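Need tokens for this chain, all 139 residues.
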Amino acid sequence: MTARGLAYVLQAAGRQIAKRHRAAQRPHGRQSVKKLMGHGENVNSIEVESPKLFDRMARRFNVDYAFYQTGPDKYLLFFKAGQADAITACFESYSRKLLGKSKSSRIPIREQLKRAADQLAKEKPKTKERAKEVVREER
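Here are the structure tokens for all 139 residues:
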């Protein structure tokens, strides 16, 4: 056996060991519900409206969690019971951030369209259109 052949065999063995090591580690952060349940620990859940915003907060607290969609814009947040303190702190900052985004300051698009339509109806029609209306009335 040559040195090159021996090096190839050792690299292959090293790759196999690294692969098994990565497979044995638990995933952290956001993951699927199946993986979270597979950790073998108790799991709790909370209803959440905005998973994207919660993701930002959860990265700061290094918690393991998973989302399950129950309906349109309704999600269940699953997390380990052992991390309840971290989730509580994370959820507190999430709710503070969610309440800080006041929906009253933004005008819905449908409302903006209604206002624009009302405003156009109140304005006088353009001269060309007005001339056409006058001609139609004379007939």
